[in-house]
Amino acid sequence: LAAADGVWTLAPDAEMGGIRQIDDLVRARLERQPPRIQTIVEALACARRIPLQRLLSVFRREDLAQMEDDGLITVDDGGRHTVALADPLVGEVVRGWLSVPRRRELRTLLMSDGEPPVEAIAVLELLGLAAWTRECHTLLPPRHALAAASASLRLFAPRFALDCLEGIDREATTWPTVQHLRARAL
What we know:
Elements: E1 2-4, E2 7-9, H1 17-31, H2 35-47, E3 50-51, H3 52-56, H4 61-69, E4 73-75, E5 82-85, H5 88-97, H6 100-110, H7 123-135, H8 142-154, H9 158-165, H10 175-185
Antiparallel strand pairs: 1-2, 3-5, 4-5
Helix pairs in contact: 2-5, 2-6, 7-8, 8-9, 8-10, 9-10
């Protein structure tokens, strides 16, 4: 690893053979699953964390229960009951396989009624939604983008905050806040 702007990154001369092995292990594990389970894994890889109710509105309860029993997913027992992949590395690997059209297709599947209101979404869900939206090469609604940028700054991720602020139209109601957040990020 090498430090770059206070962030650890993989050194250019690093041995990458282990990453290919991890990719092969994840692929082998998922190929043994039925296609509907593979779709849920892909959706969770993109979303990172999503409320259980939203998943239940799209996918079968039995599949989610089986995935939890198999250790593929975890359900947070907090008030929101959010679901995430049990191993975040699986999410990283699966996201690496997915094309932009497939990410958009999964986003449309899970967000068919649009993004949840900013007030009703937890910080980690909001940041996951922002990352997923960026990976789909689309834009967040301005309220979501501002909230995600603000949360990113609180979590010391100024570059992601700047990414969230990209594409916000220059409107009198939001532009001062955008500029203030940009200044803080820079």
